[in-house]
């Protein structure tokens, strides 16, 4: 009995980390087509880190691969498809100047000028969004992930103003009607709530990689920045990489190899 209760609490705890808003919808119409519900056994060997981080080798990503990454993320996490200024995005692309607004190369190569870059929450080591949130709806967990408790979000958007990377989106409207194929295994958010990338915390809890990393064909590498033997540290040891807007002092955990 004790073991069963512990297993239940383990699953419930993962759900609370970033999955705590909206309607769970386990009994929705999409349930039959969805993957099987994870069991306690799926959470038996979680991935752990002191500070999760990512390295993106931008030269290895083409438009088709980036779309595959975005589709995998948005479809699984029920990110609504809304056009225009009210767009909701966890993973998106932009050009060099929008990605690295503090970089002013004298002679930017044609390749970089025309290249698109994959953008997401940087899960900063020193996140401004956490400091400005008045309700502690945004917080850092003990693995360096910047997580949201959507139930505590009051929609003040201070976090959006504090984030120097535009990584957060606000639900001006009920997002449910803009989700074409609802994933019943992941809760959608509600009107008046901010949302963003979670580094797939629910996958990490099952010992898996983030969906975008899986879909990237090796162009994106994930691991513990505090572990010198981790894949991300091994790449950063060999190749020069930059971070977005380092002058902001937030210490982003996403690195870009140009």
Automatic annotation (TrEMBL):
Claim: Flavoprotein is one of the keywords in the record: no
Sequence ranges assigned to domain 4Fe-4S ferredoxin-type in this UniProt record: 144-173
Gene3D superfamilies, per database record: 3.30.70.20
Keyword Metal-binding annotated: yes
CDD domains xrefs: PsrB (cd10551)
Enzyme superclass (EC): oxidoreductase
Matching InterPro entries: 4Fe4S_Fe-S-bd (IPR017896), 4Fe4S_Fe_S_CS (IPR017900), DsrO-like (IPR054822), ET_IronSulfur_Cluster-Binding (IPR050954), TAT_signal (IPR006311)
Pfam families, per the entry: Fer4_11 (PF13247)
Entry's EC annotation: 1.97.-.-
Gene Ontology MF terms in the entry: 4 iron, 4 sulfur cluster binding; metal ion binding; oxidoreductase activity
Protein keywords: 4Fe-4S, Iron, Iron-sulfur, Metal-binding, Oxidoreductase
Protein name, per record: Menaquinone reductase, iron-sulfur cluster-binding subunit
Species per Swiss-Prot/TrEMBL record: Fundidesulfovibrio magnetotacticus
């Amino acid at each position: 009995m004790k073991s069963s209760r512990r297993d239940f609490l383990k699953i419930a705890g993962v759900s609370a980390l970033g999955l705590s808003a909206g309607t769970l919808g386990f009994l929705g119409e999409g349930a039959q087509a969805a993957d099987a519900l994870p069991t306690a056994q799926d959470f038996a060997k979680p991935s752990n880190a002191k500070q999760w981080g990512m390295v993106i080798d931008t030269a290895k990503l083409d438009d088709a691969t980036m779309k595959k990454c975005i589709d995998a993320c948005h479809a699984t996490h029920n990110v609504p498809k809304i056009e225009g200024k009210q767009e909701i995005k966890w993973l998106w692309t932009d050009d060099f100047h929008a990605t690295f607004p503090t970089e002013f190369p004298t002679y930017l190569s044609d390749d970089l000028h025309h290249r698109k870059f994959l953008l997401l929450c940087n899960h900063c080591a020193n996140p401004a969004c956490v400091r400005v949130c008045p309700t502690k709806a945004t917080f850092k967990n003990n693995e360096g992930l910047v997580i949201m408790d959507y139930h505590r979000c009051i929609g003040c958007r201070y976090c959006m103003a504090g984030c120097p990377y535009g990584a957060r989106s606000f639900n001006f409207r009920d997002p449910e009607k803009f989700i074409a194929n609802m994933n019943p295994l992941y809760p959608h958010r509600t009107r008046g709530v901010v949302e963003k990338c979670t580094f797939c915390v629910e996958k990490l809890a099952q010992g898996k990689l983030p969906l975008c990393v899986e879909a990237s064909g090796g162009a994106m590498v994930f691991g513990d920045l505090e572990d010198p033997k981790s894949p991300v540290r091994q790449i950063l040891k060999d190749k020069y990489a930059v971070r977005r807007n380092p002058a902001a002092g937030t210490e982003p955990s996403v690195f870009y190899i140009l």
